[in-house]
Amino acid sequence: LVCGDTVSRSFAINDCVWEDSIWKTINFLFCERCGCEVPGKHYLCHADVTIRHGDLSIVANGGWHDAGDMTQTTTNTAECTYALFELLANIKNNKPLHDRVLEEAKWGLEWILKTRFGDGYRVPTSSKSCWTNNIMGDKDDIYREAAYETIENFMCAGTEALASKYLRTHDPVLSTHCAKVAKEDWNFAWNHRFEEDFCKLDDPNRIYTFLLKYSAAAWSALDVFQATNDEYFKEKAVFCAQEIMQCQQQELTDWDVPFTGFFYDDKSHKLIAHCSHRCHDNEPIQALSRLAQAFPEHENFPDWMYAINLYGDYIQKASRFTAPYNVMPSSIYHEDEAYHAQDYDMGMIKKYLTDDECRENYKLQVRQGISLGKGYYLRRMPVAFEHRGNHAVTLAGGKAVSQAAIAKNDFDLMELANRQFEWIVGKNPFAESVMFGEGYDYCQEYAVLPGEMAGELGVGFACLDEHDSPFWPQVNTCVYKEVWIRPPLLWTWLAADLHGPAFVSGIAKPGSKVTFTEKSTRVAYVIQASPNTGWYQGELPSSEYQVSCDNSSREITLLSSRTYRMDTPFYDFRITAKKTGTSVEFEIQTSGEGLATISLRSSNLDLKPEIRTVKLGEAIAVRAELNDPKKPYYLVLAPKDNPRDIWEAFGY
Questions:
Q1: Using one digit for the tens of pLDDT, what is the confidence trace for 128-145?
Q2: What angle do CA 194, 396, 72 make, to 5 degrees?
Q3: Are 459 and 487 a contacting pair, CB within 8 Å?
Q4: Dist CA 242 CA 233 (whole Å)
Q5: What gap in Å lies between CA 347 and CA 331, rounded to an integer?
Q6: Predicted confidence (pLDDT) per residue in 429-451, tens digit
Q7: CA angle 250, 637, 635 (to 5 degrees)
Q8: Which residues of the chain fall below pLDDT 70?
Q9: Is 252 exposed, middle or buried (CB count within 10 Å of its CB: 0-12, 13-18, 19+)?
Q10: pTM confidence score
């Protein structure tokens, strides 16, 4: 960019602007490998770290170190491996990157399989914070006891199942084994879900709540079902989704600034869900989104989409308070929640609130947020004590938004997810990239034992004292500049949704031209249909388009790495709603020629699901009563022959 005598440094504009960052993140993971020689970093390490389970023991090196201090946790290795396998599905056409990501994914998978005892017990956190000499029996050996942890077994089961699906053609023997142990590990978790959670003692930084437990159970059960076709796991995924939705605020609050769509720790709705440096905010919406994508004709589909719309409405409204950056805000807090910590099951709040001074400081931090009325405040940055740093909150929130965008096929939500990447690499108040080696003006970070690594991310922007604004001092120390694996794994997970073009294909009249005109720029992309078969296919940038062929047209949103099947002739629907009292009138304007069979379903409306055949080009009127006037309404329309192609109406 040139403005007078000022010339910017170069930057790319293309469909794959995040590819360099993915390569660098994979480099960081390689440097963080445990039990592997990394040239220029370390020799084979930690061969004398042992996990014991009765008379049994496992040498626990492998996977990736958790941070620059060489610790390690099952949570991060499991979810990092999952993120890598999810990314693989969207980079099949980029063989060098695909093969490198697959190599790293299998490295993590090997550790997950290696460190399970086969009875529900597996390796918990294995603290190191030092190099050891790899000689067993001397004074620097590290020993830990195995743990039976519900949420980690769910996560490992999901990872094993996703790996099984992907490895069917690459390594069928390993794929079969992964499917077997995924079923076992998921059932170990399910059968143990009501028992005391070991990680309350083992890993106090782990946020362990009813909401997150059932979120992990839902998305992992879906993966196990898709890997094994065992209906039992589909039923469990659907059941867990109901538990998740009961943790959501679905009524408009009576605050001065009303909100809906956020989540509580459990069904009691006592404490709004908070995460800080170790964030899992993506997992409830991820579970619901993936269920909606997998089962668009399920009877619960409108309820899943209703919850996703509620969340999307919440996060779009909340992110306006961080404009012009539109970075994910932390959470909504109540000023007095610190004084009721004994009522909450588990979380950072219970760990830190040990005396009146801490409780008063907690309240002071809450009150620095944006007042919503009745003692509630929206905090841009998490309320925190010694663990301050926000990259995980930013990126996990971005993943939640991208998953909502995929379920809804919503371009604005996906652009909001993109803002989270931009915040990390320079679109922030410090005009500085905080991924080492990516972009410009990146800084040194706190990588204690391995040293600086391209692709590393620290814990993230902190806040000063009780203030609710980002703080990034030049001093290089923990915890905010400490290199951790969680932000890079969340970067990888989000990149699976944001990287690459959209893929379109379909059948048109042989030899015809299919024209996609981008609505914002009016740039047209033309794809020629085969003169013999009429088949067409192509790649397009993520955007909103008007697509036309011969005499038919429609509007379509195309999202990165998503696949769209669009046969001609095209048809389109446009839904408008008018609420009067407790009644909602919908007008559905159709376009196209001929007949179309559609389904109409809803949530919070007295409207029975119906399938009707409509004449295209005419308007349809639908009237319904609200079931609960305090909640928003939701209507979804889908063609019977393509139930994933949906049109929605959501409002208050």
A1: 788 889 999 998 888 889
A2: 65
A3: yes
A4: 14
A5: 14
A6: 999 999 999 998 888 899 888 88
A7: 25
A8: 127, 196-207, 341-352, 354, 386
A9: middle
A10: 0.95
